[in-house]
Amino acid sequence: MALDNHDTSDANAPRKGVWKSGKGKGRSQTKGRQLQEDAWDEVRALLADKPRRADLLIEHLHLIQDKFGHLSAAHLRALAEEMRMSMAEVYEVATFYAHFDVVKEGETPPPALTIRICDSLSCELAGAQALKTALEDGLDASEVRVVRAPCMGRCDTAPALEIGHNFVDHATLEKVKQVIAAGDTHVHMPDYEAFDAYVAGGGYEALKKLRRDGDWEDVQQNLLDAGLRGLGGAGFPSGKKWGFVRDNAGPRYMAVNGDEGEPGTFKDRWYLERVPHLFL
Ligand code: FES
């Protein structure tokens, strides 16, 4: 087994995390969590030939979480090594998101299955607390863990919960038991409209025409006159926002935030699932 998968050309080269000692000076190992060979092997096998780019960190964390049911300290350390990132960076991301379960040395890993029940406003009003209690009383805690979670963008089907990666709408204890019995813990995506199909049916013709011979000031004024506002809570006029962007020299970047966050909304999830080309 090679000690370093990045470069096996020099078998005598010191491994990262191990200081080369010389004439009695220095330590034989760095401070902090040491790299464990078995965990490193597992992470490498899981990542296989996937790129080790930093922007894929969350994807790689998901791979480990899905495979082992949690993120052990040893796997995080191995992932940091594999991606050539600091342990602090990896740990910071892993502990930021509720879907990742970081388990330090000596801690007990969670059960194999986790139910995340939304307790944000719409679900709370639809009985999330009573449902959580029913789940805790009606399921085997050694096999299933029930935890609260923030809005899942499914406020239209409250109370909502997630079993593994399977979202259950209008959830009840009975529905949950059926899903668990069927082992149906994987994500279900609705059919979505592909960009090519939409364009083939005449989609984006108006946009093309506008790009060719449109007047953007005119479009922006139309937005303002129509009173179109953002649905992010502040209700900021869309036409003004467009104006701020157009007033600045390029390049301009657009960040699409798919986190609903506002009580009662599920628009982003709906569009991202069904007409993703709208965002592109
Ligand atoms: S409040 Fe529960 S999904 Fe939005």
- The rounded distance between the terminal residues' Cα atoms is 44 Å
The tally of beta strands, per DSSP, is: 6
Secondary-structure-based class equals alpha/beta
Strand content: 5-15%
Number of helices: 12
Explain how this protein is built:
The chain has 280 residues and is α/β, with parallel strands linked by helices. The chain folds into 3 domains: 67 residues, Arc Repressor Mutant, subunit A (Orthogonal Bundle); 70 residues, Glutaredoxin; 84 residues, no CATH class. Helices cover 41% and strands 8% of the residues. The protein is built from 12 helices and 6 strands. Strands 4-3-5-6 form a 4-stranded mixed sheet, with helices on one face. Strands 1-2 form a two-stranded parallel ribbon. Strand 5 and strand 6 form a beta hairpin. Helix 2 runs antiparallel to helix 3, helix 3 crosses helix 4 and helix 10 runs antiparallel to helix 11. The radius of gyration is 25 Å and the shape is globular. The N terminus is likely disordered. Bound molecules: FE2/S2 (inorganic) cluster. FE2/S2 (inorganic) cluster (FES) binds next to helix 5.
Could you name the key traits of this structure?
single chain, 280 residues, alpha/beta, Arc Repressor Mutant, subunit A, Glutaredoxin, 3 domains, globular
How are the SSEs ordered, and which strands pair?
Blueprint: H1 37-47, H2 57-68, E1 71-72, H3 73-83, H4 87-96, E2 102-103, E3 113-118, H5 121-125, H6 128-138, E4 144-149, E5 161-163, E6 166-168, H7 173-182, H8 195-200, H9 205-213, H10 216-226, H11 238-247, H12 267-274
Parallel strand pairs: 1-2, 3-4
Antiparallel strand pairs: 3-5, 5-6
Helix pairs in contact: 1-3, 2-3, 3-4, 10-11
The structure holds FE2/S2 (inorganic) cluster.
